[in-house]
Design a protein that fits this description.
151 residues; mainly alpha; 72% helix; 0% strand
Length: 151
Amino acid sequence: MDIVLQNIPLVSAFSGFIAAQLLKIIVILVFERKLNLRVATSTGGMPSSHTATVVALATSIGLIHGVGSTLFAITLVFSIVVIYDAVGIRQAAGKHAELLNEMAQLISEIYEHGFKHKDLKTLLGHTYPQVLAGILTGFAAGFIVTQQLFG
């Protein structure tokens, strides 16, 4: 276990994820005035934990190995793909889920008996502000962890 905890980029990535999930709870508490611990285990929301995780990893790799390293290039490209997925593809999947939910509702109204549907989750992706907050959270987590453990 010690060897895993000595892997600074890995610790940075997990720290970015945990920070983002905790921030989701705080954002809901501040803006909606309710404590909702379930958001810590759900997808979507402010900030993007996917983004925070990969940005923390890339930040740590960049600080340790340099931004000119091959390893940083790999993590940067990986981060861009994950961020693109978080805001683009997953948001489109959420729109598809909305349409499928509407169709299932219509079918269930036509066939009152025998067809029961369960709505698909529609909040799958992130908005640009949620991704930006994830980038900032991830950069901060990666920077702080790497400076504390490596610097």
